Amino acid sequence: MQLIITDPRLSRSYVLQTSPGGLALALAGFFIALTLVSAGIYHWILLKGAREGWPVISQVMRLVVKDEFDQRDRYLRENIEVLAKRMGEMQAKLMQMESLAERVSGLAGLDPAQVRSTPGRGGALVAGRAMNLQELQSIMDHIEVDTSARNDLMTAIESRLFEQKIKKLMIPTQIPVPEVSTGSGFGWRIDPFTGMSALHQGLDFPAPVGTTVLSAAGGVVVTQEVQANYGLVIEIDHGNEVLTRYAHLSRAFVKKGDLIKRGQKMAEVGNTGRSTGPHLHFEVLVRGVAQDPQKFLAMGRSESDKTAKR
C-alpha cells in the first residue's frame, strides 16, 4: 500500500510505503495516544474545577461524593443491623445460661438468688430506631462483662459439685460383700462364745472363704494387721473422722498407706480371729463411735434407685 502526500508548499510529493498491518498498528497507536491525552485533559479539568470551585464541576463532584457516602452509610447500617441481631442472640443465650446456672446452683448448695445477676425485664414490643456503633460497642462491653461473670459462676458451681461428689465417694455406702444376705446386725445380741448379752458394733456378711471384699468408700488404709478379736483386719480412713473396719479376713490385697477407691477389691472373706464361721464383720465409726452400718448402706441403695429411675 502507498500513501502519497502532496502540498502546494512542498516542492515535490512524498510517497510512503506501508502494509495493511502496519497501517492498522499506526491507527491503533494514534487512537490510544488520543485517548490518553483526552483522559489526561479530562482529569486535569476535573481536578482544577473541583479545586477552584467551578459551578458545574463542583456540583457533579458533590453528587459523586454524596452517592459514595450514601453507599458506605447504607453498607454500615446493614452490617450494624446484622451485628445487632447477633448480639440479641448472644444475650438470649446468656439468659439461658443464667437460667441453667440457677437450676444447677440448687444442686451445688448455692442460693439461686445470688446466681441471678440481671434483674427481670419485660414489656410490650415497640419498634425503635437502628443502633449506632457506640451503642453496639456498649452492648458488646456489657456482654463481655456478663460472660466473664458467668464463667466465674460456673467455675464456682463446678468446684462445689466436685466437692460434693468427692464427699459422696468418701461416705461408706458401698456394700462390701454384694449379693450376700446379712447376718447379725448392729446392736445388742447374745454373744456366740459367752452366751451373755453383748453389743455387736458392726454388721456381719456370712460368705464362703475367698469371697471378694470391696471398699465401702474411698480413703486411706490406716491399719492392715492381725488382731486377737478381729483376726486379719483392715481399717480405712475416709476423712471427716469417718473410719470403716473389715474383720476376720483370709487375705488382704492392700497395705497401710495405700489409697483406696470406692468399690475396689481389697481383701477376701475369712474365718480368722474371734469367729464361729466364715463371714465379714463390717463396722463404721464416726469420731471413734460405732454407728449402724445399715444407715450408710441404705443411702447407697437409695442413690442407686434414683439413678436407675433416671
Write the layout of secondary structure elements.
Blueprint: E1 2-5, E2 14-17, H1 20-52, H2 55-108, H3 112-115, H4 133-169, E3 187-190, E4 197-200, E5 203-206, E6 212-214, E7 219-227, E8 231-237, E9 242-252, E10 259-260, E11 265-269, E12 279-286, E13 289-291, H5 293-309
Antiparallel strand pairs: 1-2, 3-4, 5-12, 6-11, 7-8, 7-10, 8-9, 9-11, 9-12, 12-13
Notes on the structure:
The strands form 3 sheets. Strands 5, 6, 7, 8, 9, 10, 11, 12 and 13 form a 9-stranded antiparallel β-sheet that branches. A two-stranded antiparallel ribbon has the order 1-2. Strands 3-4 form a two-stranded antiparallel sheet. It is rod-shaped. It folds into 3 domains: 2-52; 59-116 and 131-169, no CATH class; 187-309, Glucose Permease (Domain IIA). It has helices at residues 20-52, 55-108, 112-115, 133-169, 293-309; strands at residues 2-5, 14-17, 187-190, 197-200, 203-206, 212-214, 219-227, 231-237, 242-252, 259-260, 265-269, 279-286, 289-291. Helix 1 packs across helix 2 and helix 2 (55-108) packs parallel to helix 4. The protein has 310 residues and is an alpha+beta fold. The N and C termini lie far apart (101 Å). It has 5 helices and 13 strands.
